[in-house]
Design goal:
Layout (H helix, E strand, L loop, with lengths): L2 E5 L6 H13 L6 E5 L1 H10 L5 H8 L9 H7 L5 H12 L4 H6 L3 E8 L4 E7 L5 H9 L9 E3 L2 E5 L8 H6 L4 E5 L14 H7 L4 H8 L1 H17 L3 E4 L14 H25 L6
Parallel strand pairs: 1-2, 1-7, 2-3, 7-8
Antiparallel strand pairs: 3-4, 3-6, 5-6
């Protein structure tokens, strides 16, 4: 039976996920396939590259660097999170991403993007950790209004969470029978219609299918939460979520806040570690 890991997005809430997966890596928990959405893709790729600790390290190091995330970056480049700095300078020069380990790892790593012309989810397997793989990861995390459209080949892409926020169904349809799902909102959270819908409708008016997907995202998200809950009740999924709303927004410049969210993720994972291993069929030592 194959094991999978599903990583929801949530911008800086993804530091909770980073804490969870670092505990998994430190304890030798392996998965056959990982799928990440948005921050889940950006941070989850470090699982396949075998680099626990890297996410919290570079986020706290560059938290106040305007090249990393700032309104100035948005004005100058069109991206709140600077594309060149985040996806090239950091992983290639400042905090090296182990693309060789990524390429040699047997773990299948998928990211989810939204095709803005169809409004549908696109699932991309990333095997190399360089070149187009980094662009697909960037596209998965490119939030509308805060990012430029990412064009790869003939596809125009944005945030995967618009079309498929919690891709458990994708994993099951492609043969992964046991899945650990990491959420970045508490279990009782339910999404409401976004306040940004009118602005997205105006800015993205050339792409009506994307606008429709964005307007109805809350319905899709809540339906996926229901599906995840049913999978958990049926024993097909093990769900990890913060007990309370995380003390962080989409953007964060305080390293201490980042460390606290990461710590919450670690502690949450440690509390259920034995249960996760039992669910995955990993023998206790």
């Amino acid at each position: 039976m194959k094991n999978g890991l599903v990583l929801e997005g949530g911008a800086m809430r993804g530091l909770f996920t980073a804490g969870v997966i670092d505990v998994f890596m430190e304890n030798g928990i392996e998965f056959d396939r990982i799928v990440g959405v948005s921050a889940g893709a950006c941070f989850g790729c470090n699982y396949k590259s075998g680099q626990p600790g890297r996410v919290i390290r570079y986020n706290t190091r560059f938290a106040k660097d305007k090249r990393y995330c700032s309104v100035r970056s948005l004005i100058r480049t069109g991206d709140m999170f600077g594309a060149d700095f985040c996806y090239h300078e950091i992983p290639e020069k400042l905090d090296l991403f182990d693309s060789e380990h990524f390429a040699n790892s047997p773990v299948e790593f998928f990211v989810v993007c939204t095709d803005i012309e169809t409004g549908k989810a696109v699932y991309r397997r990333c095997d190399k950790g360089v070149g187009d793989d980094l662009e697909w990861i960037r596209a998965s995390a490119s939030m509308p209004l805060a990012s430029r459209i990412v064009q790869i080949g003939d596809r125009k892409l944005l945030d995967g969470g618009i079309a498929d926020s919690i891709p458990l169904r994708f994993m099951e349809k492609t043969g992964i029978e046991r899945n650990v799902v990491i959420l970045t909102q508490p279990r009782d959270y339910r999404k409401k219609p976004a306040k940004s819908t009118k602005l997205i409708r105006r800015v993205m008016r050339k792409y009506p299918e994307f606008v429709n997907a964005a307007a109805n995202r809350y319905k899709m998200y809540n339906a996926e939460l229901k599906y995840v809950r049913e999978a958990e009740e049926n024993g097909r999924a093990f769900v990890i979520a913060p007990a309370e709303k995380l003390p962080v927004g989409h953007v964060e410049h305080d390293p201490d806040v980042m460390r606290e969210v990461y710590r919450i993720g670690r502690n949450t994972a440690l509390a259920v570690l034995e249960d996760v291993m039992a669910f995955l069929g990993i023998p206790a030592e």
